[in-house]
Amino acid sequence: MTAVVVEPMRRRHIRGVMAIEQLVYPKPWTPALFLSELAQPKSRTYLVALENSRSFLRRRNVLGYAGVMVAVGEAHITTVAAHPHHHRRKIASRLLVQLLREARLLGAEAATLEVRVNNRGAQRLYAAFGFAPVGVRPGYYAETGEDALIMWASGLLSDAYADILQHQAARLARPGGDSGAADLHVPWVQQRVGLPADTGRD
Ligand SMILES: CC(C)(COP(=O)(O)OP(=O)(O)OC[C@H]1O[C@@H](n2cnc3c(N)ncnc32)[C@H](O)[C@@H]1OP(=O)(O)O)[C@@H](O)C(=O)NCCC(=O)NCCS
Q: Pairing mode, if any, of strands 110-116 and 146-154?
């Protein structure tokens, strides 16, 4: 299995980041947008997962990346992606462990994110990090018209949340090491997401 290291994203990583961005998102961010995010280090943290090559001469490939913006005690996860050739190899989990630790250091008491309602894999990933669905933003993704599920994790500074991060970090060290995440398309989410808005249900 490819050894992976997580580091702060730098300018030199943008080319590798963009290669993934263009593969996984219908409306990719631009290099300029990433650069503007990197220019605000007091409120943003961006990380890359790199192939841990032993050779000094070889450029280390970007395998994934993730970012968070923290303002008034709230962390907003802005992006998480892994290269499609490396999915289900805990790259996103590795990034999230580090990213949420950084968010705690920046004083975040809660974290939120938007995810496509049909992106069950990502929702499961986030569930393993204590995120729960709290609502829907209809048509949030303008390029496709898809709805966003809003997810929320509270108590980031609590010991209980530190335990969640510790549990996930320990899992990364084990080969296999199932995430233990639930599939969030349980009836609650199906009701919120799957039923037409005019059913009268909340
Ligand atoms: C979602 C994404 C970031 C996951 O990255 P990854 O490195 O493959 O994730 P991990 O290997 O760390 O997965 C951790 C857990 O998440 C869940 N998960 C991740 N991808 C899944 C999928 N396709 N189907 C079902 N569960 C999935 C599983 O519970 C998994 O644990 P397991 O492998 O032990 O079962 C990746 O698929 C991706 O880049 N997708 C395109 C971009 C995207 O959708 N980003 C999220 C935007 S909100």
A: antiparallel
> Distances in Å between the alpha carbon of 174 and those of 89, 99, 125, 127, 167?
11, 20, 17, 20, 11
β-pair type (62-71, 44-51): antiparallel
- From ligand 1's centre to the CA of 87, what distance in Å? 7
Kindly state the tokens that stand for 60. 């280390």
Taking the C-alpha atoms of residue 10 and residue 153, their distance in angstroms, rounded to an integer, is: 28
* Neighbour count for residue 134 (Cβ, 10 Å): 13
CA angle 36, 80, 30 (to 5 degrees): 35
* Torsions phi, psi for 127 (to 5 deg): -60, -35
Ligand 1: centre distance to CA 20 (Å): 14
Pocket test for ligand 1, best of 98, 124, 131 (most atoms within 8 A of CB): 124
99-122 pLDDT, tens per residue?
999 999 999 999 999 999 999 999
Ligand 1 atom 27: residue of nearest CA: 121
Residue 69 has pLDDT above 80, yes or no: yes
Q: Provide the 10 A C-beta neighbour count for residue 128.
A: 18
Reduced to 3 states, what is the DSSP secondary structure of residue 164?
helix
Beta strands 4-8 and 146-154, pairing class: unpaired
Q: What percent of the chain has pLDDT over 70?
A: 83
Q: What's the CA-to-centroid distance between 21 and ligand 1, angstroms?
A: 15
